[in-house]
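Predict structure. Chain length: 130.
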Amino acid sequence: MEKRKLVRWKAVLNHKKRSRYGFIVLFTFFTILCMGCASGFQTVAPQLPDKFEKIGHAEGKACGTMLFSDGPGDNFLPVMLNSRVQRAYDAALNSVPGAKWLTEVTMQEDWYWWIIGTTRCVTITGEAAR
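Prediction complete.
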């Protein structure tokens, strides 16, 4: 009987070691998964020349969609999402005839959730210059 209890006790200890090892592996995996990336600021507008003329207010808007997403953290299928800032800038530039640059640029982002994803819209405003 004593030998049987000893064998059973060793099996319990081995199971605890495996459980602890599995926990450590899962904890490490989820910790790495939850880490994020960061980057610096991105310049949207090109550098202006020394002499330029302001010719009016410019505004442009562009949207992109993340399909099968239930919030900002769950990204599955981007549709025109990554180019929305450039498209909004181009739309703002084209909103004023003869404009070559934008100065005093501001960017606003709005998003809304719908049944199978999210849509994110960027609005670029500024003063058009040539």
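Summary: The chain has two helices and four strands.
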